[in-house]
Amino acid sequence: MLVIGWIVGDVFNIGAQALRYNTVYSRIFNGIATEAYYADLAENYVADESYEFGTVVVFGGSEELTVTDKKGDRRVAGIVSHNPAHLMNTQLEGDNVVPLALQGRVPVKVIGTVQKGDILVTSAIPGYAIVDNDPKVGTVIGKAVGSKQDGDRGWVEVVVGRV
């Protein structure tokens, strides 16, 4: 095992700009994080099924989350995250624990054409979002960062936590 370190004032540095640690394990981190590789903040919830990332979910079902099946549903919870930069509630137990994106950018399953800046809400197609640029309060998933030109099912990146 190679350990590189030096003391600067009252701080001990490990690693170096050209020689970084790949993975560091610790019970408690007390410090300042200056970067995150991935782009969203997520929290674990128990779902009634194991949903793939990008799936639009609502509060309800037999557990905390279930798949959407109604356009503009006010029970909207959000999008199942792919690789969150920070994941909260990691000790949650259940048969189908899924990370729900709370803030940041994530890919989402969509139906129809999408332009950058469009507002997305739940659709009647289970697990998918749809554009609604005049949504009711409480129905917004987020705003599209990307575009999709065809009317079929597909993917687009969305910023959650933005209205």
Brief digest:
By secondary structure, the chain is mainly beta. It has strands at 5-8, 11-14, 40-46, 56-59, 65-67, 76-80, 86-88, 97-111, 119-122, 129-131, 140-144, 153-160.
Question: In terms of topology, how is this protein built?
Answer:
Elements: E1 5-8, E2 11-14, E3 40-46, E4 56-59, E5 65-67, E6 76-80, E7 86-88, E8 97-111, E9 119-122, E10 129-131, E11 140-144, E12 153-160
Parallel strand pairs: 3-7
Antiparallel strand pairs: 1-2, 3-8, 4-5, 4-6, 6-8, 8-12, 9-10, 9-11, 11-12
Notes on the protein architecture:
This protein is mainly β and 163 residues long. The chain has strands at 5-8, 11-14, 40-46, 56-59, 65-67, 76-80, 86-88, 97-111, 119-122, 129-131, 140-144, 153-160. It contains no helices and twelve strands. It is globular.
